[in-house]
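Methods — Computational structure assignment.
A single polypeptide chain was analysed. Its primary sequence is given first, followed by the predicted tertiary structure written as structure tokens.
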Amino acid sequence: MTTKPLVSIVNIFFNAEKYFAEAIESVIAQTYDNWELLLVDDGSTDKSTEIAINYAEKYPGKIRYLQHPEHKNVGKSSSRNVGINNAKGDYIALLDADDIFLPPKLEKQVAILESHPEAGMVYGPSLYWYSWTGNKSDRQRDCFAKLGVEPNNLFYPPTLLTLYLTDTGTVPSPCGLLARRDVIEATGGFDERIQHLYEDQVFFAKMCLKAPVFVESGCWDKYRQHLESSSNIAIATGEYHPVKPNPAHKTYLYWLEEYISPQNINDTQLVKALDEALVPYRYPLKYINSRMKQKLKSIAKRRLPSVVHRWIGTQMWGDRYIPPVGAVDFGSLRRVTPISRQFGFDRGLPVDRYYIEKFLAANKADIKGRVLEIGDNSYTRQFGGDNVTQSDVLHVVEGNPQATIVGDLTNAEHIPSDAFDCLILTQTLQMIYDVRSALKTIYRILKPGGVALVTIPGITHISEDEWAKYWCSNFTSKSAQLLFVEFFPEANIQLETHGNVLAAIAFLSGVATEELHSSELEHRDRQYELIITVRAIKPQET
């Protein structure tokens, strides 16, 4: 019997009596039971010390109380290091005394690290939690943290650190992570020269340079937003600002420059990002001049004629140019009817088919043995070729001469179980109301180790052909992920999104692939999910 790895949760606190018990209870409520909680007291003078000691006495062996010598207040970094140095677990999670974990947090993230042994850390988007107040107006303010990357992927050094420097809004919350203790120890843990502000970014920088990091789509923690938080207090005192240059940011950037210098990291994008982040502190006049130019552009937006503004803007900034209100040039797209109602088939290759065929080409090694495709076997022949030993076609109604099997995926007991090495299902699930029953069938009829290659529409119009009456729904990456994990192990699912605003507009208008540049098609914007692709593997029998 395999023993579950132990997770050590390090929860530092300083005068946190108001929210502390709720944070501790969120650990006790975890669906994953092999954990220990280390409550590290940073010299509290309120009732939070008493709260911590009471929980440690109530849960001996599970919860431990730790403090600095003489009950001193030392700082966040030193306190977290005390917890890490006393941890017994294979994995480390961090929790602040005013935040909470959601019940599946440890279960979900342990599974990810267990299935990705090369990853040193995993994190997902924290929920910026305003609604804890119970006020109706605050419920609308809850939002997920920005990831800045396609989730459910592994990122190698120094990709994420470069991202954090260019877009500070993508830096994760400490309570959103789970990390391997040995990787943390290899980095030296938290740097105790930086105790208060940006200490978390110091930690993330070290981790993202040391090992690959898995960024997931699941949110398993709530990051409480309140005026008494350390960041809000620092804003009030002038130590910190989320957008403007500030002393704490300067200290962090100079620390980072000193940290990476001896490591001989020859990544031009990272070096460029760090240099640009340092401009306000090294070259304040240059920074002020840049800000002045931005203000002048803002004035020009309001004063110049739209045609002149648009011409100047496109010449100088290309795709980065944003026309002011009234200056947008719709050109051939200023119409209330599409250019093509046939998805662009009558003009060339539809935009969605570009992504579908690219996905199948990338996974053509899976199209082998006995293959089942829906409607016809064109993709089986195109991408499987001689690797296919038997090609089957499923059609929902009789009369299709290519069909070797007639049936409905939601009610298909006549299709044998464990029969197919590969199943190609393109743009079909939106036609099925009972999607769960269809996925249950897909899982059943695949052989152990068999692969389902599935594409699902995200942004699309509804067809005008005989299938229009069957069209039930479109999907998002989140809804697709949640559906597939009901049947396939999460580690066996590879889900990606494709598209951007231009590709979506082109597809909705019926513009064909040939009318766009490859760079326009290849750009991915996760907020515009034109197509969702899923590669799901049925586990081998044990």
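Note: The mean pLDDT is 92.
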